[in-house]
Amino acid sequence: MKIPGLDVEFANLPAPVPVWFGQVTSAQWVTAATAVREHGGRLVALWASGAIFSEAVSPGGTRAKAIFVAYVTLEGLFWLELALEADARYPDLSALFPAASRMQRAAADLSGVVADGAADQRPWLNHGAWAADHHPLLQDPVHLPAPAPGALQDYPFVRVEGDGVHEIAVGPVHAGIIEPGHFRFSVVGEKVLRLEQRLGYTHKGIEQRMTQLPALQAYRLAGRVSGDSTVAYAWAYCMALESICHTQITPRAAWLRALLLECERVANHLGDLGALGNDVAFAFALAQFSRLREDWLRACKTAFGHRLMMDCVVPGGVKADINAAAQAQLLICCDAVLNDVKKLYDVFEAHAGLQDRFINTGRVRPELAAQLGLTGLAGRASAQAWDLRCDHPFVPYDQLRVVMGGHTRGDVGARALVRFQELLESIRLIERILREKPEGPVASDVVLPAQASRGLGWVEGWRGEIVVALELEGADLGHSISRCHLHDPSWQNWPVLEHAVLKDIVADFPLINKSFNLSYSGQDL
Which one, of 210, 211, 257, 209, lies nearest residue 236 by Cα? Predict the structure, then answer.
């Protein structure tokens, strides 16, 4: 498989989804990006290598730096590696893919690599907690030195000048029980002229910590990158590990993983629809959807042993099977939620005040969505028809035939409608999975390979596609994880929120923000 116009042979990685890996030169790095853009592909993730502290890797005890990128085309996912010279510089991609800007800034903070020619080179994850020349992924994870604090300084927000323009600073600490994020509004009166975000407050050192964990146990940390997407992250990590180990999970395990993933999707859509109603002072919606979500989570607890289904997806399959009693209760819950959601959809559609706040608020037109790389649920509400379950279906989605939700208007109302569509479709899928799943074991043995290997997992979470790229050392280095990059779709979608609020009023920001409901934790790593 090749990228059009790029003379590079890609190696197919053994995975349920089509994934290819290739090494490129600096010139080919740019050629590949241009070709993907011209043929309607998307940038999914960009990250840099870490370091391995072993004489078995190189005489100096560390390996050379590299920058990686993952693109999605109609054929599948292409994973490219560019080895870097001593100056650790590589060609900027943000002119072709605006979403690359923050990923490049994060790579510079963590690994000391620099995008040559990038217009924005401000720190992203480093808030002054460590010095500018301290790069966490280049530190020895076994003997990790305490980072020297950097110099605290004001973050250089872009200023908007003009008559009547003033700034409103919101966060990073908010009134609600939510994660921290800073939003700097430039406004005239109530109208928003510009929004600039400052995130990274929840940086936890996850990617460094992954290198300290046994490969067969690291799925637990992967499932805690963003707690509302624990199934999607754990599945993506396990898929990457199973690709490395050439492990094929059993059909029943694959069906049960899909069951868990769709249950996670239902829980989050129920919560978001209630919150959207609450943000327009429609407390009835919050009460009803909160009730349904609580009933759903209790059914998940009974069926899988955990309300959020943490640690249910394990390398080789799933932790436990579902018994007949739990299956019957989940089916009853499906019927109850389905009936009530249909009624609540009619209420939403008939509520003039709610529709007045939803329609044309926070609009992202399809052409802007395509330019900025809007993905996942929010992308589908702006006519970006990408869903891994439909584009490259694997077991059991190849048999379930998912009906993709979507809209073209790209506003709060469209994003709410797509949630309704996906919620109802997920319930249909859950009912089919419970009734049609094959018999058999729910786990397979996972044997780590003797040689160094790489694998990639790619799963359609409820926000969008989750990607986990995993590099594993061979038996001589104890099968240690040399690098694990975990990518959340919020990387692509947070910058789009800055555009969605333009020309709306400040009071509409909470509603617009909730209609995206992006993860702070997922993109802070």
Answer: 257
The one-letter code for the residue type at 324 is A
Q: What is the pLDDT of residue 492?
A: 97
For 498, the token pair is 């800055």
How far is 181 from 200, CA to CA, in rounded Å? Answer: 8
Q: Strand order in 66-72's β-sheet?
A: 11-13, 19-24, 77-83, 66-72, 42-48
pLDDT of 441 reads 96
**Residues of the chain with confidence (pLDDT) below 70:** 52-63, 141-145, 151-153
In this prediction the pTM is 0.95
- Listed residue (395, 369, 398) closest to 383, CA to CA: 369
Q: What single string gives the DSSP state of each residue in 48-115?
A: E------TTT-TTSSPPPEEEEEEE-SS-EEEEEEE--TT-EEE--TTT-TTHHHHHHHHHHHH--EE
What's residue 177's pLDDT?
Answer: 81
| Amino acid letter for position 492 | Q
Alpha-carbon gap, residue 400 to 415, rounded angstroms: 24
pLDDT value for 413: 97
Contact 45, 456 (CB under 8 A): no
- H-run or E-run covering 296: helix 283-304
| The residue type at 419 | R
Phi, psi of 206, deg, nearest 5: -65, -45
316: left (phi over 0), alpha (psi -120 to 50) or beta: left
**Kind and range of the H or E run holding 199:** none
Distance between CA atoms of 93 and 251, rounded to whole angstroms?
A: 40
Rounded CA gap, 183 and 454, in Å?
38
CA diameter of the chain: 70
CA distance 28 to 33: 8
